[in-house]
Design brief:
Blueprint (H helix, E strand, L loop, with lengths): L2 H6 L6 H8 L10 H4 L15 H10 L4 H19 L5 E2 L2 E2 L8 H8 L8 H29 L3 H12 L3 H4 L2 H19 L13 H6 L12 H21 L4 E2 L8 E2 L7 H9 L7 H29 L3 H13 L2 H7 L3 H22 L1
Helix pairs in contact: 2-14, 5-6, 6-7, 7-8, 7-15, 8-10, 12-13, 13-14, 13-16, 14-15, 15-17
Length: 362
């Protein structure tokens, strides 16, 4: 990191704390007094959503032949139809099944009718789900751009999402054209992040920022349903522990018992435990969920801090915090005590740092 970056970084004093958090062996075992003090830095069971980190890890650990992925997708659709008591994905123009449990590669197999195994309605619903995921991946950065006027953050998010595609998706002309357009916009914003790229054919970011393309509606689940599913998830772990002659415990410092695993839960599910709105969870379950949320929050801020240090751009920490804030549901913000005032402070730091950088650069 350059000396300018160190001098102007408005969050420089927190660096050592986040470095210690990064060195922690396990997110689940991170214990933080900041969470107990509400420090803002300190989401049916078959519908439980894996965290993004868990999904990514699974994808890396077990690359599967695309034919197998396609066959599994076909079988999954058939099971969903049976469970919903329907024969197809659309009735009167409305979807009858939830595809959120399918990964991006499976959805691509369906949307492109790989192996000729999928009907047009299934292809259309899968394509819609893929569009929603692109919108969801881009939404926090779009919000950050609107708050700060920094267009680079949105183009970087779009580029990262496209680069996360499967080899099969990357082999298509559609992917190649879209990535070329986004890359051109990203390179332009590297020269001047305050100027929106214009006139790039096929650019999906510009119309999204301008509001000329309507994002796919976010089908967020009822928070009470999530709490019910999480309760069942924890109860199954308790039963499994009992079948092994052990007690399910939530404190990693306990030397006996089977440690509960919350790592596969997304942040909204963890927030359901933390907030305990329907009094479904015990004190130790709530405490463990708070620790997991705190560790993930610290990790996201640490990533932003590392980006700030590696690029020598002190604004990257504020941008990272704003993106994290924008990606949270209202329940997640409440559970982690990320208030609107916290967002306002990050915006203020970003703008003041940008002003100082402009002055130094003449």
């Amino acid at each position: 990191m350059t000396s300018i970056g160190t001098a102007l970084n408005p969050y420089a004093q927190v660096g050592s704390a986040y470095a210690r958090a990064a060195a922690t062996p396990s997110l689940a075992s991170t214990l933080s007094n900041d969470t107990a003090n509400n420090d803002p830095l300190g989401g049916s069971a078959t519908n439980l959503t894996l965290s993004e980190a868990a999904r990514a890890q699974l994808a890396k650990a077990s690359p599967i032949d695309f034919t197998i992925v396609t066959n599994d997708a076909r079988a999954t659709l058939d099971r969903l139809y049976t469970a919903a008591g329907v024969k197809g994905p659309l009735v009167d123009g409305k979807t009858t099944i939830d595809l959120s449990t399918l990964d991006r590669r499976s959805l691509f197999a369906i949307s492109t009718n790989n192996g000729g195994k999928f009907i047009p309605d299934e292809q259309a619903v899968a394509a819609g789900e893929l569009k929603q995921r692109f919108d969801a991946a881009l939404a926090p950065s779009l919000a950050t751009t609107r708050l700060t006027g920094d267009y680079n953050v949105s183009y970087k998010a779009a580029l990262d999402y496209l680069d996360g595609a499967s080899p099969e998706e990357k082999a298509t002309a559609t992917w190649a054209a879209q990535r070329a357009a986004v890359l051109k916009g990203y390179q332009a914003t590297q020269q001047d992040p305050t100027v929106a790229p214009k006139g790039i054919p096929g650019d999906p970011v510009a119309p999204a920022l301008a509001g000329t393309v309507t994002p796919t509606p976010n089908k967020s689940r009822d928070f009470g349903d999530i709490a019910s599913d999480v309760r069942g998830f924890l109860d199954r772990q308790k039963s499994e522990a009992a079948s092994n002659g052990k007690e399910l415990v939530y404190d990693p410092r306990r030397k006996t018992g089977q440690l509960a695993d919350l790592s596969s839960l997304d942040n909204r599910s963890l927030s359901a435990i933390t907030l305990n709105q329907d009094n479904r969870f015990s004190g130790e379950e709530i405490y463990a969920a708070k620790q997991e949320l705190s560790a993930r929050t610290r990790a996201s801020v640490l990533d932003a801090l590392k980006q700030s240090q590696s690029t020598g751009d002190p604004r990257q920490l504020s941008l990272g915090i704003l993106k994290a804030y924008s990606s949270m549901s209202s329940e997640e913000r409440l559970a982690t005590n990320w208030t609107p005032e916290f967002q306002d402070a990050a915006i203020k730091n970003y703008k003041s740092t940008s002003t100082l950088l402009s002055m130094l650069r003449g």
